[in-house]
Design a protein that fits this description.
By secondary structure, the chain is an alpha/beta fold. The protein is about 30% helix and about 20% strand. It contains 10 helices and 14 strands. It has helices at about 75-80, 125-130, 155-160, 175-185, 195-215, 240-250, 290-295, 300-305, 305-310, 325-340, and strands at about 40-45, 50-55, 60, 70, 90, 115-120, 135-140, 165-170, 220-225, 230-235, 250-255, 265-270, 280-285, 310-315. The strands form 3 sheets. Strands 9, 10, 11, 12, 13 and 14 form a 6-stranded mixed beta sheet that branches. Strands 6-5-4-7-8 form a 5-stranded parallel beta sheet. Helix 3 (about 155-160) links the parallel strand 7 and strand 8 (about 165-170). Helix 1 (about 75-80) packs across helix 4.
Length: about 350
């Protein structure tokens, strides 16, 4: 992927280490590896027992469908896209911008309805988490066993309060976490046949086919990248779920040769920012990363052919894994490739 807001850390910068499912005092959780063959969940639909096997092969089993869920913000937004709403009582991660508006990663989630336990990396109020009486905590998993954005220092306390679920969101095509979050949402009571969901899926499939056709007829080379004051990061399209999917559709991405720890990107000094040639820059647009106006002071940035040509497209490098969340990203990349000219 790319370095995160804490750009000095590993994997996009900041993987919060996860662990085994905690046994909550408020609910009963079983850490066995049973469950459906697909790794999905089950529920009687009448208030009966509920279970779901996550991508750590851990099964959470409860007496009933959880009604008080806390999730990493993009996860909550993805579940909301699939129809899970009132059950989400708390979130952690980028949720509100300094001006009070929703962070783009929050999608269509009502950020004023949920309790925000922490709005940035390494911020998670355990006291407020306890107050939510949580039944389940859910996050993305970018490295094995790691629950993203759960602070390392307080993870044991957090995991002891309620069982956790992790869905793998790296080194697999974006289609996989979308499918898994759909399965999870359905197990939580969402109707995947609802018009909102089926319309979003149809738009996703149409957008994907358009990108496939565009990539086939184009010779544009794309570089997914991110910048901070000290380093220029070239992201690995073989590790990031969205980039993997875009490559499957035929997009030609720069593949960095010397990857940093965890394999998500190669970090370059700004003096070497021109190591790879590209016609289009797919620039990380998350809050906390440098944008074109910030990068203008970097001489090597200004000399990149794609920058000179004004061929820079925003990259939502931490997508929400739902049809509704992914489609605008596909459409945006498609348009950027269609509008770009070869500059190499």
């Amino acid at each position: 992927m790319r370095p995160s807001r804490a750009l000095s850390l590993s994997r996009r910068g900041l993987l919060a280490a996860g662990g085994a499912v905690g046994l909550g005092a408020l609910v009963t959780a079983c850490g066995d590896d049973k469950g459906s063959k697909s790794g999905g969940g089950s529920d009687s639909g009448k208030g009966g027992a509920w279970s779901f096997t996550d991508d750590r092969k851990k099964t959470v089993s409860l007496d009933g469908t959880p009604q008080r869920i806390v999730a990493y913000t993009p996860v909550a937004a993805a579940l909301h896209d699939f129809g899970v709403d009132d059950q989400i009582v708390g979130v952690f991660g980028p949720t509100k911008l300094p001006n009070g508006k929703p962070d783009p990663m929050a999608g269509d989630l009502d950020v004023n309805r949920v309790k925000i336990l922490g709005n940035e990396y390494d911020k998670f109020s355990v006291e407020e988490y306890v107050g939510l009486d949580p039944q389940l905590l859910i996050s993305n998993m970018y490295d094995p066993g790691a629950l993203f954005y759960v602070p390392e220092a307080s993870k044991k306390k957090i995991f002891d309060l309620a069982p956790t679920l992790a869905i793998s969101t790296a080194r697999v095509s974006m289609l996989e976490p979308i499918k898994r979050y759909a399965e999870l949402a359905e197990s939580l009571g969402a109707d995947l046949k609802a018009k909102k969901v089926t319309d979003a899926k149809a738009r996703f499939e149409k957008a994907s086919e358009t990108l496939r056709k565009t990539a086939k007829s184009s010779r544009i080379r794309v570089m997914a990248c991110s910048g901070n004051p000290d380093l220029f990061y070239v992201s690995n399209p073989k590790a990031n779920a969205d980039l993997i999917y875009f490559r499957e559709l035929g997009v030609d991405f720069v593949v960095p040769e010397k990857l940093d720890e965890n394999g998500y990107f190669q970090s370059l000094s700004w003096e070497n920012a021109d190591q790879y040639d590209a016609d289009l820059l797919f620039l990380d647009n998350r809050t906390g990363t440098l944008q074109p106006k910030d990068l203008a002071a970097k001489p090597t940035w200004k000399q990149l052919p794609a920058v000179k040509a004004g061929q820079i497209a925003p990259w939502s490098s931490e997508p929400r894994f739902s049809y509704a969340g992914a489609t605008p990203l596909i459409e945006s990349l498609t348009k950027a490739i269609q509008d770009a000219k070869k500059v190499r």
